Amino acid sequence: MTELLAVALHDVEPRSFSRAREIVTWLADRGVDRVTLLVIPAPDLHPIGARAPGLAAWLRYRVACGDVVAQHGLVHRASARARWPRSAVASWQGGAAAEFPGLSPEDAARRVATGLRLLREIELHPRGFVAPGYAYTRALRAILAESHDWFADVRRVCTREGDLRAPALCLGSSTKLKRSLSPPLIRAASRATGELMRIDIHPADFDLPGHVATLETLLRRADGRKPVTYDDLSSKQGLGLPRGPGQPPGPSLRGSGHDEGSEAAAGVRSMPFA
Ligand SMILES: [Zn+2]
Which end of the chain, N or C, is less surrounded by CB atoms within 10 Å? Predict the structure, then answer.
């Protein structure tokens, strides 16, 4: 069975544009020629199409080269305040980026739809979604089951054909503790990856030599794996990965039966360091 490598580049937006370009080149130099670009449709409420036409053009070019674009929230900033303890979980998970916890289902649906529309207006057609800070709510999962072909949390990729269990190897840079603890933890976790290895890269990782060294180690460990996008994972059939137990096709994406409370608690335990 082919072993796969899915690399996701987070937080692609005007401020990270030049860094994102460098990272894509850095990855190509290391044999990773297919990347999933997580794009923020309207950081600070400014749609990227109007604010950064150069970024929009580059994203279309990258898609033509084989990368894919996925929607990364709408503004990538928390605006509502979830009830405790969800708020505590959300702030651990995504800090100020946790956009969806605390929103009403209607607000969440509006944000998902607006982000999708803004990306489509610049000829990008994301099939997938990753919540900022990996902070999901039950309502958001239900919305995404209708609006997108896949969405990914820190432990699995949820597709219309079922869930793929694979932890995201994700370094943290938002606090000193995360900066120092996450590299050894992620290195250790990478030894236990199965058929699918998920590596998350944040533009801020490249401010930290220790993070870059860790990413080099992960990519060395991934040597021989086939680079794929998350879109590849969602339209699967050919990839031959086992699905999670009890996840029949179709409806599994819809409710998934995930209880938000236990989901959130599990997220705390396994949450890397977004
Ligand atoms: Zn993000």
Answer: N
Q: What distance in angstroms lies between residue 3's CA and the mean position of ligand 1's atoms?
A: 26
Domain 4-70+150-270 listed as CATH 3.40.50: no
Q: pTM to 2 decimals?
A: 0.84
CA of 234 to the centre of ligand 1 (A): 21
| Centroid of ligand 1 to alpha carbon of 13 (angstroms) | 10
pLDDT digits (tens, 9 = 90+) for 220-257: 999 999 999 999 999 865 465 555 554 444 334 443 43
Of the candidates 64, 65, 63, 55, the one whose C-alpha atom is nearest the C-alpha of residue 12 is 55
Tokens of 163: 């869930």
227: CA distance to ligand 1 center in Å?
A: 21
174 Cα to the center of ligand 1, angstroms: 12
Q: Ligand 1 centroid vs 99 CA: distance in angstroms? A: 10
For 97-116, how does the pLDDT look when each residue is reduced to its tens digit (9 = 90+)? 889 999 999 999 999 999 99
